[in-house]
Amino acid sequence: MNNPANSTVEVLHRPAFAMARVVLRPGESLQAESGAMVGMAGGIQLETHMQGGLLKSLARSVLGGESFFINTYHGVNQGGEVWLAPTMPGDIFTLSLANQSYLVQSGSYLGAMDGINVDTKWGGARTFFGGEGLIMLRCYGSGNLILSSYGAIQPLDLQPGQVFTVDTGHMVAFEEGVNYRVRTIGGLKTTLLGGEGLVVDLTGPGRVLLQTRSESAFLGWLIPKLPHQSSGS
Questions:
Q1: Distances in Å between the alpha carbon of 49 and those of 37, 73, 176, 199, 207?
Q2: How far is residue 21's CA from residue 10's CA, in Å, rounded to a whole number?
C-alpha cells in the first residue's frame, strides 16, 4: 500500500512526472540510486559507497542492472530533505514494509529508508535476444521502499491460486511469496521478431505492481524512426 499519513516520503507531480520528497530526521538515512537526486536541503550529509563490498556491488551492477555505487543521505543536525526522481517519465510508489520482502524489477528501484536491505536475486532466464530477462533485486526488512515506473503503477492483489500472466517489460515488483515462472510465448520466431517474447506467470497470494508502459516497446517504436547516418557522411 502507499505510505500512511505520517510517512517521511511525499510523492509529487504524479502520475506522469513523479518526484519523491523524502524528509530525514536527525539520525535517519536514505539509500538511493546514483543519479536519482534532484536536490537536497538542510542538514543532509552525502556518502557514496559500494553497497556490501566489491562482489555484491558487482552483482547488483551486472545481474541487477543497477548502479555500481549507492548514494546514502544522512540526516544530521536538524535534519533535512532529499528530492528523488527516476530517469524515465512515470509514477513513484512507496511501500511501507514490516518485515516483508519484495522482488523488484531492475530499473524500478529508486531508494530505501533505514531498515531495508537490497540484494541481487536471479529471477529467471536472461534472454539473449530481447534484453528483458526477469532480473530482480530482493528488497527486504522494515521501512519505506521507494519504487518508480515507466508510466503509471497498477497494483494487483492476487488471491490464493490465482494466476496472472504479465509481459516482463511491464513488471515493477511483487511480494516474494508470489510464485513465478518466466517463459517464452508464441515460439522462437515471435521471441526474435515479434517483440512479445517473454512473459512471467504469477500465482497468488500476494501483491503485484505493474507499469502501464514498457521501455522496450517504446524503444522498438522509436528506433526505426530515428534518422540514419549515411556511410559517406
A1: 15, 11, 27, 35, 32
A2: 5
Q: Quick one: the chain helix, strand, coil %, rounded to 5? A: 15, 50, 35
Model pLDDT for residues 167-202, shown as the tens digit of each residue: 988 999 999 999 998 888 765 444 444 445 688 899
- Whether the upstream peptide bond of residue 4 has omega within 30° of 0, thus cis, is no
Q: Rounded to an integer, what distance in angstroms lies between the CA atom of residue 50 and that of residue 69?
A: 5
Q: Which three cell numbers stand for residue 230?
A: 549515411
Number of neighbours of residue 90 by Cβ within 10 angstroms: 25
Residues near 172 by beta carbon (within 8 Å), at least 6 away in sequence = 93, 104, 105, 108, 147, 149, 153, 209, 210, 211
- Return the residue matching grid coordinates 531508494: 111
For residue 25, give Cα distances in angstroms to 75, 96, 114, 133, 143. Answer: 6, 17, 12, 39, 14
